[in-house]
Amino acid sequence: MSADGYAGDLTPQQAWELLEHDERALLVDVRTDGEWTTVGVPDTSGTGRPAAFVEWVDGTGRPNPAFVDELRASGLEPGDERPVVFLCRSGVRSVGAAKLATAAGLGPAYNVLDGFEGGVGPDGRRGTTGWRATGLPWRQR
Question: Which positions fall inside the Rhodanese domain (predicted)?
Fold first, then answer.
């Protein structure tokens, strides 16, 4: 475990490789329903396993009080040592998700650096880094 309280950070490519090579690994997208709908979602169909979609916060920014319960409903159980890879927009909310999952005995839990869209670039827009910019599979929801 990292000093930050979760298994560590992965680049988008490292996350994809973990998902491809470990059939137990699960990608959990913790963005909001609005983000999934308007921006797109990672497409893990190539791994033979769907991603899980569990909001960390709702569209108003309120924390999801059922977050851990929803993770368990997606097939994660305390102590099962199933790798879980958390993805958000830019790699910030997913750190909180990885920490909470670890505290709940789920994982090892990883954070995807730069998330799905990356941080805001010099042009004031997102999308120059992250899952999608790296060329990893994604689709509109």
Answer: 21-125
